[in-house]
């Protein structure tokens, strides 16, 4: 296994969440009627053209990502969710915002250590104009406002990559 010294190669990603307020009808049929939102947390390519209705690209990142573990709040059953194939995302319902640990494990050929990122799940369209005290908008207001988005752009950089991993990266 040969490292290619002096080479740095990066892959642009976005990570974050989309959330939609549930209607009363939708809440009534849930096993958990206290849940107010449906949300999706994801790691996606930032390089490719987006699908019409989603944030980020539709590219399959599994040529260099082996697993994404989304560690949810302990109030969720099996809070550590492993996703081993595209799309790297988890969808749930819930009522509260919390920090999600996003651990990315790379394919074995990379010889790279896993990395961890943090994302604060955003459900509410908080606005600085909510005076005098910031508070979550009412269900009516949230429904009218439509989906909430909270995404971060980042670049995963590989320094001195192994030759065969570099080949994998550049042939995609
Ligand atoms: C808060 N610190 O108090 C946060 C915790 C937890 C959110 C939020 C679903 C839990 C379930 C859920 O939304 N948990 O019923 O499975 O706001």
Automatic annotation (TrEMBL):
Protein localization: Nucleus; Cytoplasm
Statement: the UniProt record of this protein carries the keyword DNA repair: yes
Top-level taxon: Eukaryota
Gene Ontology biological process terms, A to Z: chromatin organization; DNA repair; regulation of DNA-templated transcription
Domain YEATS: 3-172
Nucleus found in the keyword field: yes
Keywords for this protein: Activator, Chromatin regulator, Coiled coil, Cytoplasm, DNA damage, DNA repair, Nucleus, Transcription, Transcription regulation
One cellular-component annotation, GO: Swr1 complex
Primary role: Component of the SWR1 complex which mediates the ATP-dependent exchange of histone H2A for an H2A variant leading to transcriptional regulation of selected genes by chromatin remodeling. Component of the NuA4 histone acetyltransferase complex which is involved in transcriptional activation of selected genes principally by acetylation of nucleosomal histones H4 and H2A. The NuA4 complex is also involved in DNA repair. Yaf9 may also be required for viability in conditions in which the structural integrity of the spindle is compromised.
Domains as described in the record: The coiled-coil domain is required for assembly into the NuA4 complex.
Family: Belongs to the YAF9 family.
Subunit field text: Component of the SWR1 chromatin-remodeling complex and of the NuA4 histone acetyltransferase complex.
Name this protein carries in UniProt: Protein AF-9 homolog
Organism: Hypsizygus marmoreus
High-level lineage: Eukaryota, Fungi, Dikarya, Basidiomycota, Agaricomycotina
């Amino acid at each position: 296994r040969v490292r290619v010294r002096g080479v740095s190669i990066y892959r642009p990603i976005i990570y974050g969440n989309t959330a939609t307020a549930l209607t009363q009808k939708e809440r009534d049929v849930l096993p958990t009627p206290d849940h107010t939102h449906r949300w999706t947390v994801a790691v996606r390519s930032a390089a490719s053209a987006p699908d019409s209705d989603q944030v980020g690209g539709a590219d399959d990142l599994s040529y260099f990502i082996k697993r994404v573990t989304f560690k949810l709040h302990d109030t969720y059953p099996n809070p550590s969710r492993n996703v081993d194939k595209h799309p790297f995302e988890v969808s749930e319902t819930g009522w509260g915002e919390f920090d999600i640990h996003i651990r990315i494990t790379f394919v074995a050929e990379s010889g790279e250590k896993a990395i961890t990122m943090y994302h604060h799940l955003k459900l509410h369209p908080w606005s600085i104009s909510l005076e005098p005290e910031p508070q979550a908008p009412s269900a009516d207001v949230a429904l009218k406002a439509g989906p909430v988005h909270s995404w971060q752009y980042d670049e995963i950089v590989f320094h001195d990559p192994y030759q065969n991993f570099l080949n994998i990266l550049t042939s995609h």
